[in-house]
Design goal:
The protein has helices at 19-27, 36-43, 47-60, 78-116, and strands at residues 65-68, 71-74. The chain has 117 residues and is mainly alpha-helical.
Length: 117
Amino acid sequence: MVHGGNQENCKTIKKKGGGDEKKIKSLLSENEITGVETMCQATGLTDTKLRETVLDMILSDHDLIGSCEQGYYLIQTHEELQDTIRFLKSPFRAIHQRCTALEFNWDIKHTTQRSFL
């Protein structure tokens, strides 16, 4: 099933089991950030599997799980939501900037080479 609104490309994921999700939920706090290392040790998940499971929880269970450099937390305010969105978008700005620069550099080098031929 596809969600409506701004999430047209997000599909509901069928869960295989809720054990990891329950462990993660028990570690999250409304007033504290739980570190990734702490969560990995407590759940037995790798950091990659932890991120995948948190994503599943957000997409499937509609959980409001915030993230920042220090770890994860339960989003309680609109400001926390905006902070998480800014944090999640920041690497994409740098990646986009690098892609644009590479394309520009490619054009410069290949245009220059062609003009001398």
